[in-house]
Records
---
Amino acid sequence: MSKVLIANRGEIACRIIRGCRRENFSPIAVYSEADADAQHVHLADAAYPIGPAPVRESYLNTDAILEAARKSGATLVHPGYGLLSENAGFAEAVEAAGLTWVGPSPDSIVAMGDKGRARDLAIAAEVPVLPGSPRLDLDDEAGLAAAGAEVGFPLLVKASGGGGGIGMRLVEKPEDLAKTAKAVSALAERTFGDGGVFLERHVARARHVEVQVFGLGDGRVFHLFDRECSIQRRFQKVIEEAPAPRVPEATRRAMGGAACRLAASRNYAGAGTVEFILDADAGEDGGGFYFLEMNTRIQVEHPVTEMVTGVDIVGLQLAQAVGEDIDAIAELSPAVSGHAVECRLYAENPAKRFLPSPGKLEKFSMPAPSDRVRIDTGFTQGDTITPFYDPMIAKIITLGADREEALVRMSEALGSIEVEGIITNLDFLKRVIEHPEFARGEVDTRFVDRHLERLVGA
């Protein structure tokens, strides 16, 4: 039985462990000192320590992870999402060590990792993009001002190497541009090791809609439809659903085609997500969407796609990595059946700007899983949410015959959750799900900001 070293932690490590067992692989975990008693450690067939709690000394420590792979006898490395999942250098090091990287090629990661370069590739593939600038020289104040004027205000300052909403700031007035650009650059340097930034036009009523793609590496790419990811706080997603509601069919088809066209232009292999900004005020002629970025990994929100298509994306990743024939999946042209919604339960305080709220899960009771309710988590009662990592506790995913049924089921699932010992965003999630605008599918990326007082119970 082949061994898969999972270079990650938390719920995604547990999710990959389940995928390994279904596909007859042996899952191997790694853990920091803070995670010695974590669920992914207990669930794996074996687990290896890789260093102290800080991520740079453990989960971002390439040498320690590769040494764990060597000791364990693993032949494959799955990076999950976040951490080293989009680090081309890590992917290259895995391959140089004679191991199989479960993901797209390092070249693909590099091509899409720099957001400015990715824009150029999108343009070449005839994928619509918003007006934007090249990578900026922050010492050239006149050039920065000219770039801002050309793009137009309001605009976003974005980190070239960023992702997941980190390293992105809104600028509404020209006089705020230089200060904001320098702040984003400093954050990007600390977070990604790359201080590069660029500008992009801001769409006032923007929706965040993405398309799940899977490439066979030879120019053939299929997609597993779209997801709505507009419910965000601090530019980071908190509720997702599939398929995206209230999208004209012409637009849906055009987005799917554009996503596949971009991936095919790179002979992309594996799972990936092409993210778009969709103008909420656009008509029904198939336009109004613009390339945002491509993530060369599995997404946090992949379960909603799995629920409505019946396709195991992690299983596909593993099968492709070991050379199994997955052409049949592409030829089947998977279809959507029903509607799925995902809520991310976080240890955070919505009333205090969603600041993390670590602590011990004195009580932690979740809904019973079924074919209509899925729970993805890396914690159980008695575990501690540490301050060292992302404070997501669990993902709750519900499936319905339609969106209304999926939301009813989600409301019931959230109502049955019991958490004691820490502050969570549970009540916030309930209020979003029950909000009349959300129920009608009238969402955009400013939804939370617009209704913040009501959603946090202020």
---
Amino acid sequence: MSAVELRLSSSDLPEKMGAMRVWLDQQRFEPSSFSCRDVDDGVLVSLEFKIAHQAHAFAERFGGRAHTLPKSDSGSELPSATFEPGVSASRFIG
């Protein structure tokens, strides 16, 4: 499973959320989870995808950071891919 996190300003949130939904529908991608939480400089949006290439495509399109989550059977984590500088360096998703 792969996750994406991106930071948005509170004022951009409604417009960006609409654009994300349209793009996901057009691509026929379905995230398995979605969450938003307030952070000091805006909103942290987190999505999880069961298919890694979908997470990476989403991150690339919306300027986020994609992470491959640890596999439950091995507990090891694969390296992440960064598509946009200046986003959270945190590996915490939630």
---
Amino acid sequence: MSPQALPQRLSLVAQTVAYLKGQIDSGEWRDWLPGERSLCQTLQVSRNTLRTALRQLEDERRVERIHGTGNKILPQRETVTGLPQSGHVALLSPEPIERLRPMHTLWLDEIRAMLSERGLKLRFFHGRSYFVSKPDAALQRLVTRNHHGCWILIMADDNVQRWFADNGVPCVVAGSTHAGVDLPSRDLDHRAMCRHAAGVLLGLGHRRMVLLTHKSPRAGDLESEASFVEGVKQSHRSEAEAIVMYHEDTVAGVGVAVRRLLKMTPVPTALLVLRPHHYLAVATRLMQKGVRIPQDISMISRDDDPFLSFVAPTPTRYEVNPHMMAQTLLQIVLEVAGGTMISQRELRLSPKFLRGESIAAPATLPLPGGAALRD
């Protein structure tokens, strides 16, 4: 993949711009932006970051800075309000909404409310029949019978993404796109997260690490596996080893994987688990077998969910604000639904690293020459 084709990582300034635009577009702020001090406190950003974002909005003629008064919101040409029924938005998922992860439902509630404020409805469609190896007939019937200005694809595999791209159906991928699929998308920066996780564990002294996941066809998960392995290989630690281990997407399947892991020689000293519910299953299985976290094995969860705040020891994880995710997704959905020029096709949000109590230096610290030192 050429450098030009790589997805753009959403910087702190860009996240701030996206938030400000979202608040303006939703009508939360109508005439003037809040004061700079208030915005800095709300967004938890420095004044320099905020002012850089405000300058970008000035350049785009979204706001006008009036000395001594503040930032005036400039009127924009309406592009979405007043769309016919076909202008409404649909979301397609393999699972019903009650079975989605809590983090998914949080940003879905946010974007539903944001669309409603603009007079748009969000309709929810789900079914495994749309996520099979040959989904063409099922998807054709679905889209033909339900005309919408934009479809949001969640947890979409390669087959679903390619069908929407090949048939020119207006849509946005809430996730990462597969190689060769040209669709607008918004997601977390899984590549950066997993490389960072590898670096954190290496920095603590871990040299035998496992990425534990169920076999997933999602592009973000495939990126995670590759980047974790790359992060370890490129660390110049010749003794460092990254292993990808798969498990069935069940509690029993996780238990089988934990037993396999503990039979490895030597036993890994650190784990990166992608899904938060899998993290909980792994942690409880390890504790049942007398394995201490982090004294015996360190653990990181790539994804976050609210319930992890109640797990002890507190999991180390990557946190994203669901409101920010919804705001970022809203902007591109409105552009697609309104038939306007798409500003940026691919953006990746940078989550916040939350260092919990689940990681520590390994009990056995490797020394040059293959010797080991016990704590």
---
Amino acid sequence: MNNNSTRTDRIREILERELAPTHLEIHDDSARHAHHASAKALGQGGETHFNVAVTSARFDGLGRIARHRLVNTLLAPEFESGLHALSLVLEAEKSV
């Protein structure tokens, strides 16, 4: 992965590679949170808050918490490098 890529690009690459989604939306919501003390403390200049929606067969048979844990594990390096908040809507291809 390109070191100059944006966090959005990195999140997209990880989720596409690991989840093969049929639907993927990533929205950088950092601007709405720039005034928060935590965002200022991170000094990242944005890319700290994201809304992500994924539909994937990888979620089939997994409950809501297991889906969230999976995505949070996949994106752990992003949390370690300044991702602060992640709002997730995770849907299976088949209903659980």
